[in-house]
User: Fold this.
Amino acid sequence: MKYPFFLLLLPLIGWSQNPKITLDGVVQPKEWEEAQKHLIQYEFDPGDNVSSVNKTEAWITYSATDLYVGFIAYGTMSELRSSIRNRDEAWQDDFVMIGLDTFGDGRFLVNAGANAAGSQLDMKLTASGEDDPNYNINFVSKASIHEDSYHVELQIPFSSLQFTQFEEMDWKIVLYRSTFVGGARSQNFQFPLNRDNPCLPCQSPTHLLLKGVKSTKRAQLIPYVFGGQSGARNAGDFSMDGPRGSVGLSGLFDLSPTTSLEVAFNPDFSQVEADVSQITVNNTFAIAFPERRPYFNEGNDLIQTELSTVYTRAINQPIFSSKLIAQGAKQRTYWLTAYDEVSPYLIPSRYTTYTAEGGASYASIFRTQRMFKNSSSLGFLSTHRFFSQGGSGHTIGLDGTYRFPKTYTAGFEYNQSIHHEPTADWFTTGQRIGGYTVDLDGETQNGASGLVYLARNTRNWNSGISFFSMSPHYQTPLGFTNQNDAQVLNLRHRYTHFFKPDQAWKQLEAGIRFEDVRTTSGMKRFQSLNFQTVLGWSNGMLTEISHRIIPYEEFDGYLGKDLGMSSIFFRFNPGERLNMRLFSERGKQIYYNADLPVVGNALFVGSFNDFQWGNQLKLSPSLRYSEMKSIDGTEVYYSGMIIRLNADFQINKDFSFRLVGEANNFSDTSFVQALLKWNPNPFTIGYIGATNGYSYTEPGYGYKIDTAQLYMKLQYLFDL
Assistant:
């Protein structure tokens, strides 16, 4: 074991293995004189490859074990947006970042950076162009603010990256800066962006030639200890249970520079912070939530598909799990196994999702993908779940993407599902789907899904066509399929106009989208035509207006005609201290949750806001109100609101205190959560927290406490 306690001090003392560079957040010319130097000088948004107003200098060098990056970001420091943040919470600040394409084929871009306060940001840009901000790597950052610029220095261990190791390697590099000009966000690269090329890393002209790199194999253990106490109200009396605790262990071991093995014994997969409540009063389908658990971090981009065949939150309370990831020069493979004590069970249908908490099960996800030039790929994916009391679910599929050298991207997915139901009482609906019961009585069902799409991207025009189909009995035991029996045709077309740099308007987008939904037997279910315009202003303001025409919609035998919704979104972000977002949506839609569906007038309004007080305190109040009335206004089908306030006090980059309060008028409940968190790196975390839940009693008596939780956890990363 090499100095496990010493790891705590690395973010504090700026330790460096390169004798020429002192990692102190100050870029000294003599320290970086032998490094590659680049300029980040092209604004690609909102401008179209215009000259950057705030220039940025960047240096790149390396030792045998680490990559070093230095930035000098020029600008007016009185207008700088940067405060002390938790990890991955500085996305609205001025920050700099390096992107690494370690395989040179555009399969992904690993990005690491920091804001002017040194608060770290990292994410993975996938081949499909999607951001994965939950991706984490372990690196060191330092920053300092000067009269006309701020400096950032990064030290990224090669052991935190996956690549095929050769004596000489050629990586592609993307250098990025987010800054603000006249109140508007400005995004910048070191090269002019070619909008005709759908692969971002493929078009970067910047190469980093590495020789003699020694990627140390990671051997990491992450033990944890958890303790807590819960209380609840039963039969009118509130009482606390006895204290409880648990311990667990996970580990990550590199078998080679391209292959890693992770194992977890009794892992704690509970969330540190509560998800934002969703308004589901007029929704009959299950809702997905983002994956934030660090164990599923590595390789998450490899298992993401358009048909959502894998949803890792379907693995809920495992007592053991293993994960093998191999990233070869042309082939990459992912294999996850888990024994889950409590397994979520979803049965999708045409009009609703039946959900239940199932029993214990063994889960397996296997994925392999062949990579080609320009981030094209061909892949195989299978998922399997075997329940301890009998029954199983399987999906097997193929998918592929072909990115033309210019303008076009084409792709497909096909899945076959086989489900052998357990005999269990998890559902007692008495409902049927086709010739099968929803209740679990040992039936066997087969299903299929397919998708084909073609996209065209140019400087001003973006177009696409897609068609997918899901059969009436298609299910994904480890994915997220909340409805089926559908054939969906989508057509979209969008125009982007770039204004001159000195104009008040910065960018205009106008788009149209057509959607047609039918059952697999050909019955018409839904059709819509959506118009949208987005206008960005120079003062940090953005407006979005859209109108949706729905000629008809069929729901459970009821046919609604001449429906539609109009919406407006407004954002005002003139400086770091204020970020206001307001939205309103109203129109005619079906009330799905009624005993008999009916058309009503719907209204949905709300606001999400951030107020930065000083360098450490941020208040984030939000309000959402939703209602639906009968067409003549005489009957209210539903009405309610959710009010939430987050108060974040950042003690330093590693320590933070958060107080969250939320009141839900739909369920007449509320909660208050207090959390003190220590998070010096992505995999070391300690916290102490408490949550109280309240429910409304009777008029005049207000709210009473229904639930209470006290909890603490310490999870620590040991490098062996």
Q: What stands out?
A: The CA atoms of residues 486 and 695 lie 39 Å apart. Residues 1-16 have pLDDT under 50 and may be disordered. The first strand starts at residue 36 and ends at 45.
